[in-house]
Design brief:
This protein has about 600 residues and is mostly helical. Helix content is about 80%, strand content about 0%.
Length: about 600
């Protein structure tokens, strides 16, 4: 087997294309996904049973559990599916992958989705140049989807061609007579093999070759298939590397499901293998355990036939008749083994599903402990009170939206702290870059939350509402827009600091002190605004007056600093360039105060409407 350094670089490129496809697909989904996609996914995953059926149907359709679980990871990454919903879909996908095994076993082929990739890219490109942003985003999603499949296909092309070189595994026959130790060894081989070649179908084919050559018997072939169930989880784990915490938890949930499934099978391994052999024989497909013993018998008693068994001999050859008869018998037994392995895979996954489906919430808790958030309420995007599906009573919808707006405000309030920390973080360091990236991520989440809440409120407005209810929704839409503007200001402060870093301007202690004071005023105003949002229905006039007083404090302090800034530059207390960035940050914070008071104005308007 020739495997060059260029082949290895091509493999790295294929993994890169796969990860890039995942990123583009997820970003396209985030932009294109409105209420319609959220509602479709909500209906498909309404409970653990419909979620399981969805996973089974998708995997049976595209014939790749890796691709379907990667899609689930991207849905979770985009905030369209909860962790609990994804667990049910992944369980279904594990059963769906047995459909592929049956097609290979019965018909000897597999649908090649990658054949449709280039036509799909060709159809997607015009969408990228469309005027409508949603159409453009759908084009991005389809291109990302195509790259993802192309990457998967190229990965299997550029890994070492183990399927065509089964001699590499001949040494394993020395470990086939170690009892339960052999089972563990071959399970590990199946795991590693599937991780490397990125295809449980290819592992299945290699397993069949090893059985046909008499190197291993049926129970060790089952151990290889068992290991491949864990090995196939590497693809979604790779995909989740570019995702958020929720995506990483989904991939970990997939690994955990398969690992625990294999653990219980190992406890009853020999009886479970015998059960599947009995089912296969009972269905009239022969005894799958007979192939290895038949080939070994040939090897001992008729070595000439054995050595020529897998070669094509001319019809006039002296061994032609005996080899041909042996070959026909081996082919019949090969089908029996193939059928038996498919049965083992199916029964294993069905029993695993029947046990694990009742433990979905337990899985979620375990995964959350295994993959904790680096920060409180990390960058995963998931609405807390507003869910997909049908709307309920109108008043209840408005109450849910009010709670969601308060959560939205709390998330954006954290951005003010991040911006302040960024001011005091040393520039051109990894900590500065990571904090700025986190600020960008939060601003992106803020944009998506604004769209989701606004869509929900618009749908509420389409229902049967009183004039008071419609006016209330109009005020709430204004609040959502203003909160998003606060998030923009926080990122704006980060962008000013990035420009300051590039121009190498320096702030002195007085500038830092004044900026901190301004941040203090803004945070105080923000906390008062959140107090109003948490209980909009019972907002009181004194609290609103406090907000107006805080706004005046912010404006007065801004004016004071603006005047002193000119004097400080003239007195050479700091450079002119530093003064520009200093005033930009102060103006940005004053603008944040304006948006905060706009939210308070909207709450005041709701109070006035209620009084009337």
């Amino acid at each position: 087997m020739n495997y060059s350094f260029l082949d290895f670089l091509c493999l790295l490129g294929a993994v890169g294309l796969f990860l890039y496809g995942m990123k583009v697909m997820s970003e396209g989904l985030q932009k294109a996904a409105g209420d319609r996609l959220r509602n479709i996914l909500s209906v498909m995953t309404r409970n653990r049973f419909t979620g399981t059926l969805t996973g089974f149907a998708i995997t049976a359709l595209i014939q790749s559990s890796s691709a379907s679980t990667v899609m689930v990871v991207s849905f979770v990454n985009a905030g369209l599916m909860t962790l609990a919903q994804s667990m049910a879909v992944i369980m279904g996908a594990n059963v769906g992958t047995t459909f592929t095994a049956w097609i290979i076993a019965l018909f000897g082929f597999k649908v090649n989705i990658s054949a449709f990739v280039l036509p799909l890219i060709g159809l997607s490109i015009p969408l990228l140049y469309a005027k409508k942003s949603k159409t453009k985003s759908m084009g991005e999603f389809l291109v990302g989807f195509s790259f993802l499949f192309m990457g998967l296909d190229l990965i299997s092309q550029y890994v070492p061609d183990l399927q065509q070189n089964p001699e590499m595994f001949a040494f394993l026959q020395h470990y086939a007579q170690m009892g339960f130790g052999s089972v563990l060894i071959f399970m590990l081989v199946g795991l590693l093999l599937t991780m490397v070649i990125q295809s449980s179908a290819a592992t299945f084919a290699i397993t069949l070759i090893m059985c046909s050559k008499g190197w291993i018997d049926f129970n060790l072939a089952c151990a290889l298939v068992l290991g491949s169930n864990i090995g196939t989880t590497i693809t979604p784990i790779l995909a989740s590397m570019s995702g958020n915490v929720a995506a990483k938890r989904t991939a970990m949930g997939h690994l955990l499901f398969n690992f625990l499934g294999c653990a219980w099978v190992l406890c009853v391994f020999n009886p479970f293998v015998d059960l599947n052999a009995w089912i296969t024989e009972g269905l009239g497909q022969g005894n799958p355990e007979a192939l290895a013993s038949f080939v070994k018998h040939l090897e001992v008693n008729d070595p000439e036939v054995y050595s020529n068994l897998f070669n094509t001999l001319p019809s006039d050859h002296v061994l032609y008749g005996r080899v041909s008869a042996a070959q026909h018998q081996v082919e019949a037994l090969q089908f029996s083994v193939s059928f038996g392995l498919s049965m083992f895979h199916t029964v294993f996954n069905l029993i695993n599903l029947a046990i694990m489906i009742w433990l979905t919430q337990v899985y979620v808790k375990i995964v959350e402990r295994l993959v904790p958030s680096k920060h409180k309420d990390d960058e995963e995007f998931q609405l807390k009170f507003i869910s997909g599906g049908l709307l309920n009573a109108a008043e209840l919808n408005i109450a849910q939206a009010e709670k969601e707006i308060a959560v939205y405000g709390e998330r954006v309030e954290r951005m003010i702290d991040m911006a302040q920390r960024l001011v005091h973080t040393k520039e051109e360091t990894q900590e500065f870059t990571e904090l700025y990236s986190r600020l960008e991520k939060y601003e992106d989440i803020s944009d998506r939350m604004e769209i989701e809440i606004a869509h929900y409120l618009n749908r509420c407005a389409e229902g049967r509402l009183s004039n008071e209810g419609k006016l209330k929704i109009a005020s709430m839409l204004r609040i959502v827009s203003e909160i998003e503007s606060i998030a923009d200001c926080c990122l704006g402060a980060g962008k000013i600091l990035m420009r300051k870093s590039q121009s190498h301007a320096e702030f002195n202690k007085d500038i830092y002190s004044n900026i901190d004071t301004m941040f203090g005023y803004v945070k105080s105003a923000m906390l008062n605004m959140l107090k109003l949002l948490r209980d909009i229905e019972h907002a009181r006039e004194p609290e609103i007056i406090v907000s107006y007083n805080k706004e005046r404090e912010i404006n007065n302090y801004r004016n004071q600093l603006r005047t002193s800034n000119i004097e400080n530059i003239n007195n050479r207390a700091y450079e002119y360039q530093a003064g520009i960035y200093y005033m930009d940050i102060i103006s940005d914070l004053e603008k944040t105060g304006d948006y905060i008071i706009n939210v308070v104005d909207a709450v005041k308007e709701m109070m006035r409407q209620k009084a009337e």
